[in-house]
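User: I'm new to structure prediction. If I give you an amino acid sequence, what do you actually give back? Let's try with this one:
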Amino acid sequence: MADHLQQSSPLLQEILNSLSNSVDQPQSSVSELTSFLDSVLDAALSDPDNEDAETNAFLALTEVHNFISSPSLDQAIIDSISFELPMAVSKFGGVSERCLEVAESIIDGFISLCSPRDMLSILCEALAPPIETIRDSGYVAPLLNGLSKVFLSLQRRHFEQVKVAVPIIVKVLKARSLELEDEDPEFKTLFDRAMSVANSIRAVCVKLEGGANDKLRALLGLYVLQIMALVSMNHKVSSSQPFVLQLSSFFPFCGLTYLGVVTGSVVDIISRTVGEDEDDYMSNLSDVKHGASLSVIWGHASDEVVRAAEEDLASVRDELKNNQTKRWQAVGMLKHILAPVTLPWELKKHAINFLLCVTDGNIPHYDEHDCFSSYMSSIFATLQAVQMVIIYASDTVLRKNAFEAFKRILADIPTSQRFDILKALITKSDSSSMIAILLDIVKGEMHKESRHSLGNDEVLQAEYKSHPHTVLWTPNVLALVEMILRPPEGGPPSFPEDSDAVLSALNLYRFVLITESTGKTNYTGAVSRSNLQRAYNEWLLPLRTVVTAITAENKNDCDISLDAFCILNPIELVLYRCVELVEDQLKQHSA
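Assistant: Good question. You get back a string of structure tokens that encode the predicted 3D arrangement of the chain. For your 591 residues, that looks like this:
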């Protein structure tokens, strides 16, 4: 390789000399230069442990740097090579630390010698090359560093030009960050450059006044929240926290508050400030709300982060406790942490703990709240995300806390909509165990309602029968039971896959039958003759046939028989009790 260096240096010098003398038609010499650099790069990347190859790359870059730094070099030559060379030298960023430094110096040289507006376009184009394979962090870092310098050199239309660059920067950062491990030194290099971009935008804001300042600060806020999300994804908390501290320090400058970001209100405000086309633009910053939620959860996990943001988290938690609408908004925002598989379990654990904090104690509930429909879809999504934590978390304490948070979120939903939410969760779930849990919650809610409305006070009971304002005791409950015992796709339930859900559905049906018959009511329609016959013929008898057949099939296999017994015995007991109850009710109708 040392021989190759001795041969290539004269060749590089020859190309550079030719380039310096080709003012009228420099393009062919530029192509020769980029081809030469590519060959040196290939040699270095093909054998990363070869020190001679790395030295060749370093010396080639150094010679190029000296070339563009020459005060005698014609400006026309500089302009012509500025279109090709930033991309060519950026590829060397992944070869070694010193190659990265020289590559950044070369790009800095172009920024100081060429039009900032032209360099902005050139660097943005270099960040989005057609060849995906060169988008490693070493390649990206010099370009990001260059953009941070270009922003400072812009003379006018700062907001408009930065606005164009930010989505390109974010797209590349996201693509690279998801592929990096925490221990990879490129992780720190990449986000160091991302922070340089943020610092440059802040420095530009300081120089501006009026509306342009407001818009650029809003754009910086969006960028900070987006990077907050990216630095948290697929990475250990210990690796991410130093960057989270830096990002949090931008909050006062950008007008970001914990209450505003955790409810999502400030995100909507700064999105509108950025411009009229915020919907299209925000599609390029798709993780901003993730970052907004994460910023508060990071604060919940670390007092140091709270201090960096200059916030009072205790007052934010108190406000959420005392204001149901804002609490709903915050609950809806937390789906952005609990749902993504790219976020670490430790952050999900802190999000669950935060939920427990803001729903703890005697918090105000308003059953007839006109605003809830606006938040129903987001709260439903959060409940689905909490379900995933309950099902998949390996930490027993986290699963327990998630279930407690799940119940508290449900309790915070107005009674009139609570059953609809539960029904939708059951319909959307493909986990038999989760469906069983949800049906048990329905039964518990019905039990509470029946104790209130069907209590021992005869006056209250008579009044309730005259004006039954029940929400859960309706025919919809039977529809839930039927969905499990007689699945919409046809046929009886499958065993053992559906065993948990079937047992819970049978228990719910038994509870309804006993409560309606002893209370001499029929709110659900369960004890009407037609519904009793339908349940008997379409739910219970087909289920009994299946259970009996499975028991008979496994009778002679000891191992399978024991497993089948453990699964089917509880179902048989409740099933036969339901059959008895229905038969008794049908006899009363016939009497």
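You can read the tokens as a compact description of the fold. Here is one thing that stands out. The chain has 31 helices and no strands.
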